[in-house]
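Q&A FORM
Asked by: J.P.
Topic: structure of Methionyl-tRNA formyltransferase

PROVIDED:
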Amino acid sequence: MRIVFMGTPEFAVPSLEAILEAGHTVELVVTQPDRPKGRKKTLTPPPVKEAALLRGLETAQPERLRKSETVDRIAALKPDLIVTAAYGQILPKAVLDVPRLGCINVHGSLLPRYRGGAPIQRAIMNGETKTGVTIMYMAEGLDTGDMISVVEVPIADDDTSGTLFAKLTVAGAKLLAETLPAIEAGIATATPQNHDEATYAPNLTRDDERIDWGRTARGIYDQVRGLSPMAGGFTLWNGEPFKVWGCSPIQRGASADEPGTVLDASDDGIVVQTGEGALLLTVIQPAGKKAMGAAEWLKGARLTPGASFGGGGEA
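REPLIED BY: S.T.
REPLY: Here is the structure written out as tokens.
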């Protein structure tokens, strides 16, 4: 088949490779524009662009696909199929109508659950024990198209978004390779989604990163691992952001202390009271510093039991 591929992050790279390894021709790779990255704000191409250039593929990076000449470029190519994987923009009808075999999407959830841009992170943040990849025909709605194939992937208790991304990346590429022959032959199934069961996974915001100590220890643990290693959770210490990159719920006797109160500080880390149970902070990042073990920070922080996270705090 002659294919136009559309994707942006590392999650999409193995799907691009699976298409090429199956012997199909990728006529064009459409991805997001280069973005500033790191402290020096160095303009950096997305992983899919880097992969495409290594393979000598043509690329396009419209800021807004809907209002770009890329739409006409795709139409002129007359591809048999368009494949998207975490592209990051909604395809307009003018693009959806181009390929004779339709447009398919490699989506990182078990649809109709977790439609949207952050399905992997939010599945962990919500305490799910399984997720997966769905390959679906694309429609004008947000991840509403008919499903073609599905694979389930368990979520381990210690998975972070990083480790789960890696698992789903491999599973998605394998599922795509297994699904393409049926699409090419015109015999792929198309199972409508049950829209009544749909849930949504909107892109993450700063508010999603804020730790509410009134939640359960388990809930905060799921939040932090769902945000790692991309953003991490944060609270306040001395009125400044204090990131939490690693933590775990611990068994401890009942406490009358307010949520956010430091119960203990030792070489094991910082024990904080939550709305239900206690949470051991093991990897943290104070404002203006690099991420470090909580025990390392405690050597100079003068943190004592009774101090409080989430408000002004005391040093």
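FOLLOW-UP: The chain has a mean pLDDT of 94.
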